[in-house]
Amino acid sequence: MFIVMVVGNPKEAARFLENLQQQYNDLIWMEHDPKFYENTDLFVSCGYEPYPPKGARSITWSGDDGETIARVYKTLLPPAGRVASATMSLS
Fold it and tell me: Which domains does the chain possess?
């Protein structure tokens, strides 16, 4: 289980979270909250402030939710984990 925090443009971040929150149960999705920076595995930046903290693992939302979620998994899981995850989702 990974914690993914969505930061940046509140309108875009809220839309992205709404579309993905219920589809990916192996990820904990969070809106921007500095109290949880330390526990966050990955930040998805929707542009604008607040930006991910310096040095944090982050990706930028591309505007395409499917492409962005693929990059979330690619960033968080080692290659063997991605294969296992893809195999499990096909069953």
Answer: 2-90 (3.40.50)
List the one residue out of 54, 52, 47, 89 whose CA is nearest residue 70. 89
pLDDT in tens, 31-81: 999 999 999 999 999 988 888 999 999 999 988 988 999 999 999 987 765
The residues pairing with 60 across neighbouring beta strands, listed in sequence order, are 45
What value does the CA radius of gyration of the chain take, rounded to a whole number of Å?
13
Instruction: Please count the CA atoms within 13 angstroms of the CA of 81 that sit on its side-chain side.
Output: 9
